[in-house]
Amino acid sequence: MRYAQRVRRAPGRPLRLATAAVVMAAALAACGGGDGDGGGGGGGTEAAGPKAPATIPELTDDPINLSFVWFEWPPAQALEDFANAEYTKERPNVTIEVNTVPNANWHDAMFTQFAARQTDFDIAILDSQHIGEAVTNGNILDITDFVNENIDVDAYDPYLLAAYGQYPQAETGQRDENASLYGLPLLGDTWTMIYRKDLIGDEPPETWDEMISTAQKCQDENPGVSGLAFHQANGSDAAAVTYNTVNGVYGGNLWDSEEKKIEGVINDEAGQKAMDVLVNQMKPLTAKGSGNWFIDETNAAVAQGKACIAFQWIAAAGGLLDPAQSTLGKTQDEILDKLGFATLPTQDSDVVPLGGMGMHISAYASEEDQAEALNFMKWFEQEDIQKKWAAAGGVPARTDAIQSPEFLEAGPFNQVYADSVARMRDMWNVPEYAKLIDIENTNVNAALNGAKDPEQALNDIAAEQQKVLDSAGGGGL
Amino acid sequence: MAISIDEAVPAPAQAAEDAPAGRRRGGTARRVIEVVLLVALAVAMLFPVLWMLETSIKENRDVYAVPAKFFNFDFTTIHYKDVFVGRDGGRSDLSGSFLNSVIVAGASTILATVLGVPAAWAYSRFTLKAKKDQLFFILSTRFMPPVVVVIPIFLMYRELGLIDSKLGLVLIYAAFNVPFTIWMMKGFVDEVPAEYEDAAMLDGYTRLQAFRKFTLPLLVPGIAATAVFALIFSWNEFVFAIFLTSSQEVRTAPPAIAGLIGGTTVDWGLVAASAVVFALPVLVFAFLVRKHLVAGVTLGAVRR
Amino acid sequence: MTTTTDRPVQEASQTPPAPGGSPRLSDRGLAVAFISPALLLLLGMSVFPLLWALYLSFTDYSATRDVPANFIGLRNYTDILTSDQVRIRALTTLIYVVGAVTLQTVLGFAIAYLISRRTKGRGALTTLFLVPMMLSPVVVGLFWKFMLDAQFGVINSMLGSLGFGQVEWLTRQRTALFSLIVVDTWQWTPFIMLIALAGLTAVPNYLYEAASIDRASEWFRFRHITLPMVWPLLLIAVMFRAIEAFRLFDLVYILTSGGPGVSTETLSFHVYKVAFLGFNTGTASAYGILMVLVVIVLAQFYLRYLNKLKEG
Lengths: 477, 304, 312
What we know:
The complex is a heterotrimer. Chain A is α/β, with parallel strands linked by helices. In chain A, about 45% of the residues lie in helices and about 15% in strands. Residues about 1-20 of chain B have low confidence and may be disordered. Chain B: Belongs to the binding-protein-dependent transport system permease family. Chain B: InterPro entries: BP-dep_ABC_trans_perm, MetI-like, MetI-like_sf.
């Protein structure tokens, strides 16, 4: 149905473009065409999207562009370079293009295009939590059959496979064999703790409480250096991930997915304890004015030697080793003498945040491009390619690649990732994700910056998120 | 008549000279205070611009220096090079966006001028039904909040296939510039006596010919000024650009520059350099139309 | 001051028909031919989208979901008008508009007055003062985000050398809104200044001379000669700025993205979130329509006053 529609619509476009100059008549006609003229595939019900074929259709030999959309950060450049160097060995007629948008604009940029039912990318690199929204709206291909036919699913930690592709979401930390898959892992990620070995010693703190007292001590002993640096901004998912992490460490839960309950879950005793620790113990150890910090500011604080302990996404930590941007040393070795990377401390629980993204094929890409995208994904998920990706700076998802020396030796923080895989926890990937994250971001950010009482903020998060879940799909502010 | 900056001068100073000597001493003190105040305000207004200029030629390690380095920093032009030259030595993404801005701003200005000038002439010359209402309606469309307009425009463009296209941006910018063009140009047309055209018509020209041969040439300076203001608006516009475009091929400079922050590192030197490069054409243009600034910034509504 | 009355028009229509044709008819045709393309563009790009938004505002339509719109009457409107969230944003917007416009009016008028009293270098001085107004809000937002950074920003650096502590310009509830007002004021004070200067120029010298002979006080001259002459223009400038400030989006987006929490979220910024984060297109449309109504009321005052000014 989708294909048929595209064929019908394609020749109309230049004509419409021409008409657009006169606009009024054309606009009216288009309106008559109806708002519901979605095109997209599927009936628009839960978990319905156009299906990709089980086997890869015949590929073209003509020059072809395979384009991705991601946000602006080093892995995007790494992916483009890696794919153009390696994939073209197999498919010389293909050029890979990784388009980037600012991180703050990442969700909007992808979903406004999805909403336009016309995308300038073939593969969307969605955050795991975006999947629900994209699947429900029929924006990405269902690749369950393709995966069963072409991908060695046993080679993965099941949760990783589930996190970046499965919908409905895998809550239990296990993959649900019956659920559909909509994507494959591109880049794994989690938080690492970065600590100053020269200031607090070689051994990282093991519990969260110990981490806080170490940071306090370090700050007291080193004027001009803050105890902590972490994400606090109200954009993207910055402040929310920070709270979620502390929430996990103190044994809290974000929601009860079976019952669709947030109220009373996120703001239970453990949740309140976590908020209290974050606002009253951790925030006082951060630099003044750090209340709008995200990835780049946290990196800058570490590189400028202004933080004892910092928390950062592993995939964004690469720049810390660059002597050109750092005041910690003139060579990478000098920097590594001062910086240590460790898995997150534990407290009542050992949960760490799941980051990273998967590859998802746009339902609005041309058939040719979709075929090429499937072929790329099959190619990318092979063991030796995953190892090469690891060596090129990527974070693989296959267990054999994660455990390989290529990966573990490629960066000082890669061991951290390998050790964290079993501890990872994701957020809700329901269609209302964007609203949920905004509620949490703004409230945690308000609590961190003294604009709201922390307990009140957490209760507001619970109440407002619950309201969004309850009114699923319909209106509201 | 439109005023130039140099004319914007009342001269109460002469009156003060007649004052008795005692008051004149007070006058001197007062004059000193006034000058000091004016200088202080000028410094406050210009400091951010100077600081950006300075940041754009600083080595990155000096950019982050605390306390800030005002004079003894290391000079570099690397940031300006980064604006135009990409990592791989080719053209940078940013320079592509600058080019897009030139195309979009240029085309929308031309469209707005072509549509707006004849309409302005017609509104000035002919008796029309509910003319005042029409003119006010036209101006009021310019006051709508862009964030609000962008929602239905987005839906409309989706149906027309104009999302993420330069044509889409050109059309919406032209639509925002046409009201301005009509109002501003109507003022200029009003200043050209209609008798010129009447005389020409008595000589056997049609009204259209009279407009083209006699009125239009007189309007050229006004058209140029109006077009420059339309150009400045399109050049600086951000809201439509960020919501209606997404790809590198279409993205104009404002969203591209905004995108320089929010990665894993922020290169403030590059941000400063691109801001300077982006602002330069506007400042040059603004200087060119300085005689018509008052009319220009009030959508042509206030002209003295 | 220009009179934009319809005098030339009336004269034109009184002209006897030129030989060889019926100019009245062709005039009419010409007017239609000249005006309609511009009007069509406006109808297509401004009016039609607005009507579409009006229609959507009565539905639960979402631009991303593949479900047809359902008519839900006035629910979107009642939701918005009774929402605490919207009330908070409205208050923020109000504080921002009043604060920014007041500050820039006072400063702008002061600068214009000071400039008007100088005899030398006025042209150059005015040109310099106008620079901020010409810059893109994006550039202005980035400039200031950089300068207001609590850790390495130049403002705190200067305050530091004067012995003050670091100020969290963008991350405290009060300071963040204040910073927004300051930045807007920095950019738009020149606008008020420019228009006030135009008003000050229009005060005829003989009025001052007469006052001088009467030994009128400085204050008397200002209060009874200068101000009444400048006031109408100043009022227009103020209304213009109020409309613009009410629509503010870009600066918030870049400088604070609404933070801390939601304390600098303006109405425009909130509409954006409803429209492009939640994709509640119907609700966002109703929200937008309400904002347009506010703007139209403001604009009506603006236009009416303008009209009076032109006729007076």
